[in-house]
C-alpha cells in the first residue's frame, strides 16, 4: 500500500484559503493514486485519487465504486443512509436512472434556453440593486441571489421561504464552517429539514396547483409516474443543493479571477461573444466542489494499487481540473483556453458518469447571463479587500468578497 508522498491532505487546516492547489498538484505528480491514513473511516484511512484518468475510472464504474455511502469522507448517520433516505445523490444504477428520468426533461438545453429571458431579467434586477453604489459585497448581494431566485422560481418556493431554504442549504454544504453551522450534526439535521420542507412544498402544490417543476414532478410527466411527497422531498434536497452552490461560488470565483486579470476582463468587454468560453474556464479553474467519495463494494486494482472492498476512495475533482496530462499550463487562468483545448469535455466540476450534474445547462446559462450583465455595466472592478474563504474541505467558495467599480457609460 503506497502512502501519499506529501503530508496528510484531508485536514481542515489545509483548506483555510480554499483548495490547496499547490499541495494537490505535488501529490498528483508524485503519486496519482495513494493511501492516506485518517481516524474517520473504519479502515483507518482512504485512497486519494488525483489523476483525471483514474478519477474517471472510479466514477464511471458504480458497480465497483458505490455512491450509496455518501459523497463525504465520513460515514452517514443511519437516518440519512440510502436505506432510510433513498435520495438521488445516494443511489446507484439502476435505481438512480429511474429517479433521474422523472426530472431530466426540465433541465434539457431546450428547456433551459427558453428560460434565458427570465434569468436575464433577474440578473438585471440584481445588478440594478448595486450599480449606483459603486461597490458591494459581491457574494451575498450579487452571486448568491441569481441561483436562489432562479431555482426557487423553477421549484415554486415562495419568496417568504427563500431565505430559510438558503440558510438550511448553507448549513448542509458548509457544516465545517462555524459561520454557517455548529458542525456536521447540525448539517445532517439541516438535510432532514430541507427534505421536510420539500415534502410540505409538494403537499401545498397538491392543494394549490401551479406551473412549476414541483407540480410536474408530483403529477408525472408524459409516461412518467409522479413522485410521492416523501420522494419529492428527497429530490428537492438534491435540486436545491446543486442549484445554489455551484453557481454562487463560480460567479464569485470568476469575477475574482477577472479582477486579478484585468486584461481578460477588458477583453470580455470588447468581445462579449467570448463569455461562454470564459464560463468554461471559470468552471475548470476553480471548482466549487473539491472532492467526491466513493466506496469500493468489490476488490479492484486501480493504477497498480489494490483497493479492497469497503475502502473509501476520494476523487479530487479539483485535481482533475488542473491535471497537466490533460491541460496545458493548467494553473494559468485563460478565458481563451477553449479556443485551443477541449475544456468542457475534460474538466470534472460537474462530475462524470451516471451522476453527472443534472443542472449543468442551468448553471452555465446563469453564469453566461450574469457575466454578460456585469461586463456591460461595471468598469474596472477592484477588490476592496481579499475575499473571505469558506471554512470547508468539501466546498470551495467565498463567504464575502467586497468590491468597488465604476459605472460603465
Please give the structural blueprint.
Blueprint: H1 21-30, E1 33-37, E2 45-49, H2 52-59, E3 65-66, H3 95-104, H4 109-113, H5 116-131, E4 135-137, H6 138-143, H7 145-155, H8 159-173, H9 184-207, H10 213-219, H11 229-260, H12 262-270, H13 275-285, E5 291-296, E6 300-302, E7 305-307, E8 312-316, H14 317-320, H15 343-346, H16 360-377, E9 378-383, E10 388-389, E11 398-400, E12 402-407
Helix pairs in contact: 5-7, 5-16, 7-11, 8-9, 8-11, 9-11, 11-13, 11-16, 13-16
CATH class: Mainly Alpha
Which word captures the global form? globular
Percent of residues in helices comes to: 40-55%
Q: Which percent range describes the beta-strand content?
A: 5-15%
Count of DSSP H/I helices: 16
What CATH calls the topology is Cytochrome p450
Give the overall average pLDDT: 89
Number of domains: 1
Separation, N- and C-terminal Cα atoms: 62 Å
Order of helices and strands: HEEHEHHHEHHHHHHHHEEEEHHHEEEE
The residue ranges in which pLDDT falls below 50 over 5 or more consecutive positions are none
Q: For this structure, what is the CATH homologous superfamily? A: Cytochrome P450
The CATH architecture is Orthogonal Bundle
Give a short account of the largest sheet: 5 strands, mixed
Cα radius of gyration in angstroms: 21 Å
Strand order of the largest sheet: 1-2-8-5-3
Number of strands: 12
Look at the helices and sheets and give the structural class. Answer: alpha+beta
3D architecture notes:
The structure is a single chain. With 409 residues, this protein is of the alpha+beta class. It has 16 helices and twelve strands. Strands 1-2-8-5-3 form a five-stranded mixed β-sheet. A three-stranded antiparallel β-sheet has the order 4-12-9. Strands 6-7 form a two-stranded antiparallel ribbon. A hairpin with a 7-residue loop joins β1 and β2 (45-49). α5 (116-131) crosses α16 and α11 (229-260) packs across α13.
Amino acid at each position: 500500500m503506497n502512502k501519499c508522498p506529501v503530508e496528510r491532505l484531508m485536514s481542515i487546516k489545509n483548506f483555510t484559503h480554499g483548495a490547496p492547489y499547490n499541495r494537490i498538484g505535488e501529490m498528483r505528480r508524485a503519486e496519482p493514486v495513494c493511501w492516506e491514513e485518517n481516524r474517520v473511516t473504519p479502515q483507518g484511512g482512504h485512497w486519494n485519487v488525483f489523476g483525471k484518468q483514474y478519477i474517471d475510472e472510479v466514477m464511471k464504474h458504480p458497480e465497483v465504486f458505490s455512491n450509496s455511502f455518501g459523497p463525504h469522507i465520513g460515514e452517514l448517520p443511519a437516518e440519512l443512509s440510502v436505506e432510510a433516505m433513498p435520495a438521488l445523490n445516494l443511489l446507484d444504477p439502476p435505481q438512480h436512472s429511474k429517479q433521474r428520468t422523472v426530472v431530466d426533461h426540465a433541465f434539457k438545453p431546450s428547456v433551459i434556453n427558453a428560460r434565458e429571458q427570465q434569468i436575464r431579467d433577474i440578473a438585471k434586477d440584481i445588478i440594478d440593486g448595486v450599480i449606483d453604489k459603486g461597490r458591494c459585497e459581491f457574494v451575498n448581494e450579487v452571486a448568491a441571489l441569481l441561483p436562489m431566485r432562479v431555482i426557487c422560481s423553477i421549484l415554486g418556493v415562495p419568496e417568504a421561504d427563500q431565505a430559510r431554504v438558503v440558510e438550511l442549504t448553507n448549513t448542509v454544504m458548509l457544516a465545517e464552517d462555524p459561520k454557517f453551522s455548529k458542525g456536521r450534526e447540525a448539517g445532517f439535521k439541516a438535510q432532514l429539514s430541507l427534505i421536510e420542507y420539500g415534502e410540505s412544498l409538494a403537499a401545498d402544490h397538491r392543494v394549490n396547483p401551479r406551473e412549476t417543476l414541483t407540480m410536474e414532478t408530483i403529477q408525472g410527466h408524459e409516461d412518467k409516474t409522479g413522485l410521492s411527497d416523501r420522494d419529492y422531498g428527497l429530490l428537492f434536497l438534491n435540486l436545491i443543493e446543486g442549484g445554489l452552490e455551484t453557481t454562487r461560488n463560480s460567479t464569485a470565483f470568476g469575477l475574482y479571477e477577472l479582477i486579478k486579470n484585468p486584461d481578460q476582463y477588458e477583453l470580455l468587454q470588447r468581445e462579449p461573444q467570448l463569455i461562454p468560453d470564459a464560463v468554461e474556464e471559470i468552471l475548470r479553474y476553480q471548482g466549487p466542489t473539491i472532492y467526491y467519495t466513493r466506496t469500493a463494494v468489490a476488490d479492484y486494482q486501480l493504477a497498480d494499487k489494490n483497493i479492497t472492498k469497503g475502502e473509501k476512495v476520494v476523487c479530487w475533482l479539483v485535481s482533475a481540473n488542473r491535471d497537466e496530462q490533460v491541460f496545458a499550463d493548467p494553473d494559468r487562468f485563460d478565458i481563451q483556453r477553449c479556443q485551443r483545448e477541449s475544456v468542457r469535455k475534460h474538466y470534472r466540476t460537474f462530475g462524470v458518469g451516471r451522476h453527472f450534474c443534472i443542472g449543468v445547462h442551468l448553471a452555465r446559462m446563469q453564469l453566461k447571463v450574469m457575466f454578460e450583465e456585469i461586463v456591460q455595466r461595471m468598469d474596472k472592478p477592484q477588490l476592496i479587500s481579499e475575499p473571505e474563504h469558506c471554512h470547508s474541505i468539501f466546498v470551495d467558495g467565498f463567504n464575502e468578497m467586497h468590491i468597488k467599480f465604476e459605472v460603465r457609460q
